[in-house]
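FYI - complex with phosphoenolpyruvate, inputs then prediction.
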Amino acid sequence: LDADLAPLKNLPAETLDGEQVALLTNTGLLADISPGLERGAEGIGLYRSEIPFMVHHNFPTEEEQQITYRGVLGAYAPKPVTMRILDIGGDKPLPYFPITEENPFLGWRGIRFTLDYTNIMLEQLRAMMLASRGHNNLKVMIPMFSREDELQRFLQIFELAITQLRDEGRDIQRPQVGVMIEVPSALWLISRVRDQVDFISIGSNDLTQYLLAVDRNNSRVASLYDSLHPSVLMALKFIIMEANRLKLPVSLCGEMAGDPVSVVLLLAMGLRQLSMSAYKIPRIKSLIRHLDINDCQNVLDDVLKLSDEKLMRQRVEDFIKGLG
Ligand code: PEP
Ligand code: MG
């Protein structure tokens, strides 16, 4: 399976039974742009916009942001680029804006922060839309979505950005809007926000952390942090079923997207869009081209009967080995 993966670049990620899977890449630094393109990424599924903010020494201006975003959108056009608005706080501090909290992962993070600094959000949305002019391949995504009013308040700023830019005579297009499903409360909001969003994307890193109450960066509890925990798998199954039922496009952009064992299970659940580190794409594409969805579903059924993540992983690894 691991033989020469390079020739895969221009082949589709298609299962043996003809199911197409879209493979996109995660980025944040300009240096991450070409690895994805070289490996045939079909777009950017997660652009972590906090990364350019973190390497700066003060808040970048709208103009500076626009230049950075244009580099990314232009490099991928006409392929889609999903830009996540600023997701600072938690484990992602800004050197020039320290936040001190007892429980940063439960604190002022992601959309909670930018809704308190709507000028930062407005500037960022303006910069993204301006950068997308002529390419029109921008999608905008909200991190740490956990309650409906966050989406409504975001949409007000989003509409304001559009109105302002049009009033200024700038020829911008309205981007698609999506929310990340990474806080457990968001699971039960999917159907409630169905008509206000164009897509959802599962942040399995944070979803695992918050469902299991295990800090994703604490080595003392690292053995408890496992996305194969049956509760995480059941949550993922629910999200994917719900999205498919509502005809709402769904992707997954956490680490699971690049993990072969997880991919077998996610495809079995009905997921058809994955966004991962560029370096993982060839291996995952090769795996998908050896899979049959019915077989994956049998493996998922078996795995859901087990309760020990090591045994679950072993079961899927044995299946993958058997693919030849
Ligand atoms: C996630 O939480 O799974 C995710 C993709 O976002 P981040 O890792 O940047 O928090
Ligand atoms: Mg996250």
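The two ends are 7 Å apart (CA to CA). Residues 46, 48, 87, 182, 203-206, 253-254 surround phosphoenolpyruvate (ligand 1) (CB under 6 Å).
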